[in-house]
Amino acid sequence: MIYMKYIFNKTGLILFGFSLMLASGCKKSFIDLSDPSRIVTSDYYKDSASIATAVIAAYASLQDIYGKSSGNRGIFPFAEVASDNSFAVVEGSGIGDFEYFTTTSSNPVIQSMWTYSYRSIARCNIALSRIDAVAIAPAVKERQKSELKFIRALVYFNLVRIYGDVPLVTKEIATIADAYQYGRTPVAEVYTQIEKDLTEADSDVNLPAKYTVSTDLGRVTKPAVKALLGKVYLTEKKYPEAVNKLGEFITLYDNTTHSLLANYSDIFLTTNELNAEIIFAVRYSKGNSPSTGSPFTNYFAVSTSNAGGVGTGYQYNMFRKDFIDTINAQPGTDKRIAASYTTVSTTQWTTRKYMDVAAQDLDADPDWIVLRYADVLLMYAEALNEQSPANAAVAIPFVNRVRTRAGLSGAALLATGITQSDLRLAIEKERRIELNMEGHRWFDLVRTGRAIVVMNNHFNKYSIKLNASSPVVQIQPYQLLFPIPISEINTNPILTQNPGY
Fold this sequence. Notes:
The chain is mainly α. Among the domains are: about 230 residues, Serine Threonine Protein Phosphatase 5, Tetratricopeptide repeat, CATH 1.25.40.390; about 70 residues, no CATH class. Helices cover about 45% and strands about 5% of the residues. Strand 7 and strand 8 form a beta hairpin.
């Protein structure tokens, strides 16, 4: 059991420590952590065991980013509450600001996402900077480097989509003076580094298509790298590259390594985690001390009984009526309706995707799915359609595979002859329904250039106001990005704020 403390000043992250442990005996031992003793960094990275533990710590940092009771609230305030999918009934910890687009640079969710993201990046950078000097079997070493590069790329991908220009740090920071050299790096340069990390990982022959040893389940695989790289290309509007990479994924792994599950609801069962549809997920496990449990069962529930009878229902992420109306307007019998939400009242609906019986409050089992196969199929269809209007006919079958799994058939499937613009909207809607509450909606709307019109129409339709005397909420172009935390700007003078904040 190892504890490592780093004196690290990177845009406001001063004197932070992180704990590491390679433990055993838990059904998800891959993610266990503890911090009973302290070891100075310079004395630590001397053998393969210490590097292996450092890699596990990098994985564990994703819990703090995607949601943990002792860390950050997660990605959902940005991706779901800021969209037309959900809202916060209980608006504590600054989550309600995302619903009304009143977030400021002092919002605690804005701050914690930044803080924990750069802590994760620091873990990756330190391990990557030390690993070459350590005696490790070459194949294992290269695989570990690829895992770290994937994690770093994923974290930067989230950061650049949330904040825009962000400090790009790819090496270990040893002194306070070093830290103050990092201002905001242009988005294009950040994406160049993300692509570099993922391309290098993608070329690593030591990274497997899947793991078979139980303690390795949840690690980065070659399919995960390809899927994320395809998503990055799609977000950058590099459609030929996205078509090539996502098409490569489908060619290599379709119905072998990865496939759509026959039953939509089975994707989210805690007894069926890391199933064939899951490409990469942030792993959680309840009943450990310190907790590595998932907070989402309680975060998204409306009451104790709705949370499985344990802990509190925090009501941080409840479906908006617009989503409920949209999914129920589906033609035929869409199996995703019953699997997606529970009706609490005529005005309250909660997600079913994170249901569990927690060991204690904020300590449940559901993983956070980052990438799954339905996402890849829909991204591939989108990339094909955006690449050329002539590709619409080629793209349609990939959308229809997702709709067929949902139980739709006949006239409910997309027909040959649909126009590029109509297919674009059909894919947007399909992603909204298929991937609801999984952290995609806001980023999808921004990527496709539809966020302002969709959200402002939504606010008008439901007359959403901050309070009774306020005008209907309307978002402005600058609000496609969120503010840089004010404490970071106060700490590092060369950091600047996003316009409008």
